[in-house]
Write a structure and sequence with these properties.
InterPro entries: Bact_Sigma-Reg (IPR052016), GAF (IPR003018), GAF-like_dom_sf (IPR029016), HATPase_C_sf (IPR036890), HATPase_dom (IPR003594), PAS (IPR000014), PAS-like_dom_sf (IPR035965), PAS_fold (IPR013767). The protein is built from 20 helices and 34 strands. With 840 residues, the chain is an alpha+beta fold. Strand 26 and strand 27 form a beta hairpin.
Amino acid sequence: MITARAAASFTPQGRSVAAARAFVRDTLQGWGFADIVDDAVVLTSELVTNAVVHAGTQAEVLCLRAEDGVRVEIADRYPERELPLRHPDERPYADPDRESGRGLMLCAALATRWGVEYTATHKHVWFRLDLPDRPVGTRSAGPVVPDQFLPLADSRVRVAVLQVDASDAVSAWNEDAEHVFGYAAEKVVGRPLAELAAWPQTPGTGTGIAEALRLSRWEGSYGIRGADGRVIPVYASHLRVRDAHGEPSIVCLLVHDDERALLQTPVRAPATDGQLSDARPADPFEVFIGSPAPDDLDGLLQRTVERARDMLDADAAFLLLATDDETELEVRATTGLPSTRQRFARVPVEAGTSRYGSARLPAVHDDLSAVPGAVPLLESTGMRSVVTVPLKVEGRLTGSLGVAAENPGRYSNEEALRLQFAADRIALAVESARLGELERLRRGSLSFLVEASDLLAGTLDRDQTLALMAQMTVPTLATWCAVYTIADPASDPYLAYVLHEDEERIDGLKALLSRVEPPEPVREAGARPWPATAAAVGGETVVLPLLARNRVIGMLTLGKPSGEHFRREILELADDLSRRAALALDNARLYSERTAISRSLQRSLLPPGSPAIPGMEVEVIYRAAGEGNEVGGDFYDVFPIRDGAYGFAIGDVCGTGPEAAAVTGLARHALRLLAREGLGGPAVLERLNAAILDEGARSRFLTLLYGELHPQPDGGALMKVVCAGHPLPLRLRPDGEVTPAAEPQPLLGVMDDLELYEQTLSLDPGDVLLCVTDGVTERREGTRMLGDDGLTEVLTTCTGLTAGAVAARVLRAVERFAAEPASDDMAILAFRVPHPREGT
């Protein structure tokens, strides 16, 4: 039965893939389906990519919620795109080495069910993901147990009771909560519980705090950040209730993690009815673990160490899992030990040369004080005697189980044999649960890296790339992060960005790191410890090189607080992220460098500045088309030729962008050089025409208005102009009359032999000469164009204005003529002879 639906459409653009992923993620998390979000996001990413990139059509995504799962449909509008069963070369259609078909392979691998459906106008690819079964809690009474076997607790047992309202904010906080966590009630009430909870941040595993608060009942371990900043491990029981008004809230009971027996739901033993013939044989695994067994790895491991501790009447127990290469063991569960401090710590499999120093064989140590370092995990814990046994599956070491006591000589080979039997019963279940966790982590990591790659590829700004790198690692992978950059091989690492999950600690962390020598750049990939920072900051710190194009361009430093350790899987994920981030950071660097070079070269093509011409007002406005361009195909120049004579030019090279800008540089420099040689206007343009034609295939035709300006002693100005294929200059009289000030002649860069002539005009006080490029007159809005008539109409309204005001009014008219940004370069050059009284 469909209980909810959500739909969205996405245009055929690359960024739609990320938008579709976000839509599916938000929808499923809103429905409380966190367990299947990562698989749904990965499948949606592939199928929407097929629609918007390969099919090139709009993609429609529909999410349908049912009580036991979700169905997601992705449709495109390319129904004639067939789905062949075999490729023409007889290879399967879905081949991992081919770009096409991978989405269907993922559906087959991840989805509970999937299929392809066709209609007259659409093609639907759908998949269904079922929710994993959650064990239903049971209630039972424990057996009578001798006093010495009862769980330990403080003399004054404290149970923190807090209530969380519908907005997930704390609404009640009892006296025991004040004592355990150090916060007074008035400091906590009203704050979201998520601000206090240190929830496990491993991608793809576990349930988030928000999801846990939505469940009707939840029980498990997490941490609460105390008033002193330390994380206090707790065991919690949540119950969702309604008040007298029907408003939902959550009652939370919390105790110290080592007192979990106070709240942990007891396991119900298999019921018997006295008829042995009907009873099924006892499962050795269930005999040791109890039934029902936890369905998650952490719960199974924690149950195991507690059963092992109780079985041998120990003070502590621990379980470690082996790495894939069987060289190290990783602490995954403890009881009676500082579990938060030891979790995910690494110890070697072979700690010594004797059989007692190897985790591959059972070992009994009567007194650890006589053999320091024999069991590294127990150093400085007060434990004296210990027995350890290996967990093996098909002869391969998968872990180690141990129990310890504070008194020496507590254990013998008989206890080792009992513990080995228990380890043999649970080894296969532990390995199966570990592989399941790795698979969930792999899927979560894949989703994390897909979204991280999209974010990093979406910017070429160096500072934004640094911020994204840090924000993607904190708090998902680490508690804090620092990014060092290296400008060149001869430069020292520079602390470029620092981020901490607690914003109030960022400045302090940055100050600490600035006083520590930066890590040494190393080309070897992978994470390595950084003891110098660990000593200054505290906790575990690792450094990953940022390698791009065979060069170390920086380091990514990740840190955990004291008592926490990095998991191997998290470091591998961080290594993958660092490679992607390094390439994005280097791309941003290259883009910034090339942009700076481009701008420097473009600025060299612009005139250094307009000279002050006595008795004249001169104003220039220049706009180059295209993002990041400062110079295009249009150009201008005003320059002194000799005393009392000034040259000016405004031109338009065919095209826009760098190719056109190269010709503008040639034209501007040639005009200055030829004019200062004493050549007249026609001779200057004829030689420029020859220079353009000499460029061969790189030559471009050019329209150019060139002239000489001679200010007159009586206050007017004499101008000699040549208009080679350029829009005619317009003359504005003080009475508002507008007339062309020159005649059209052939443009440059087309013919070898040009016959150009020079025209002379006089500007009187109050006259304006307006020169523009065709980016002004050819400004379009649909089929409408500003044109010569439109420019003339604008100019008639400019009587009495200064040259600057005339140029500004023309620019404003051009911009208002159309809503879209201009697609062509544009230059405006205005001259005006002021009245003598204006200078007083």
